[in-house]
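User: I'm writing a tutorial on reading structure tokens. Could you give me a worked example: one chain, its sequence, then its tokens, then a sentence or two explaining what the tokens reveal?
Assistant: Sure. Here is the example chain.
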Amino acid sequence: MKFIESVKFPFSDISDVSAVEKGPGRPPHWEMVFWWTRKPLISARAVIAGCLLDEDTDPDEFLYKIGIRKSKSKNKKYDQSPHRVEPVYRFKGVRLLDPFAGFGSIPLEALRLGLDATAVELIPSAYVFLKAVLEYPKYGEKLVEDVERWGKWITEKLRQDELIKKLYDDYAVYIGSWEIKCPNCGRWTPLIGNWWLARVKSDKGYERLAWMEYEVENGSVKIRVVDLNEELGDVAVRNAKVDGLKVEAKGKVFRVPESNVEARREIATCLLCNQPIMQIDVETGKHYTEKKKDLPKEVKERTKWYVKYALELYNQSRFGELILPQWFDEVPARPSLLVKVKVVDGDLKFEPCGGKDQEKLEIAEEEVKKLIEGGDIDIPKEDIPKYEVRRITPVLGIDKWYQLFNPRQLLTLVKLVKLIREAGKLIEQKKIEEGLAQEEAFKYAEAVVAYLAIALCKYADFNSLTTRWNPGWLKFEESLSVRGIAMMWNWCDSSFLTPLTGTLSRTLGNIIESIGYLFSILQVSDMSSINPQKVAEFNSVLLDDATILSKINDKFDLIITDPPYYDDVPYSELSDFYYVWLKRALSDVKDNRLVPRFIPEAFFEKFGEDYVEISTQWEKFALK
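And here are its predicted structure tokens:
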């Protein structure tokens, strides 16, 4: 019997420190990009060691040697997350296989414990991330320098782009929503899910209170900002009382507006005429203010929620010309900017957006239409799975991945793809000039470009129409963290230059820190001092099916894995959000089609001498 099978195995202690690692003590490389259900490193370390030790192992000694305690004493725990503490245990000559490797917690800890590890993944996006976690850090400190150098290169190139200069300014974040042309009064009304901008509380009281209000002026809705800290001062805000949308401070009473849209009930309210926006007969254009369930059966079958129908028409129009139903004289939905956020002396200042801000979206819209009409291959037109409506918002009415981004966001991402592709060629050329053989230069360029592509993925995750503004933490949050892609009425559009979490510059910093951390774990001193082929031999990352394992001929001492929980997370469907961008950044373009370059096995199937592009993961791998 092994120690992990013994009643003495300290599950409770391991669980306690694992909770810390899942929260504030996350390993640095988790910040490279979001992935679902990543397991704490300490739990993976404990399971591996527990499988290799005899049942008579002393639990206190075990906790010391895996890095939870400073000694065998129960009272001397480390004051830092265990992923920062090197274990005492080293198991040489043991071979481990993880056939569902995911983000690599198990194989990474196997390597830290001295084992030889093989990681297998079916999903190509996870396979790319695994290579970044387990394989590429073998290049050592030089890799850190080059990822930083080329990250600055693509950022500076983007900054110098004449079109991008017109689209971005010194504001860090824009908070936007959707405007709908009201079927009752025919005017444009924003749909706002949450009017709060700041609702930050500490144990001393409220630190910041700010929200949006509106007024009707010349037949349109004008947004204004109420910043209570500026109006009444910090002391008044600290002593304020907040009850739902009611705020009392310094003897005054304020009321934050209520949301005027509720998707589950399929109802919105026009801010100009105060009439409900409900169902539309898509065959006649008649608008009904009854609930769908209360409509006659023959009418019910022809109706859609007006808001969803309007959003569908907007997304269909992004292909170019759209033949509108005769009851519309223009597309009845559009993205709209509400408030812009500026960083001033480390604090955030909120200002209402104006016409010039909206014009930037319109400029970007025209440029995106040109790209689409010109058939630009870097616009991700791949299909979103229609069946996964639990996890990919049906309200937006989208059917292509590129429709998850507003025009400015999409244009920026496409330009980044092209810059990363260009950087890959320059890196390879530079390494050849420095004396590396062509094959080695190519592999090294692949490693650098993979990290740049991962930065692109995280930036996309934080910069789409399904991000959200968090007034409690004064930050914008990613698209994928809710185990799906949910409808967000208050989405965020961030500048790639700002230092806030999720922006390109911040993400590149996360990746540089991550490589250094992984490099220290793998204990490789420098690219020049190792044989990359030897490292790869016992640190294998394979793209394969766990039910077949066609690429494995070796025997293993341990098979330890954390398999997927059926469809708890639809990995192939959701991670296509990443895949469509990874494929472009890591491939080349010839005759306006993608062709293999870096990590081709992730994006193409080979048939004889020809390569066929894998359109999406969900089409190829979902059934597996």
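What the tokens reveal: DSSP finds 19 helices and 27 strands in the chain. Residues 304 and 376 are 33 Å apart (CA to CA).
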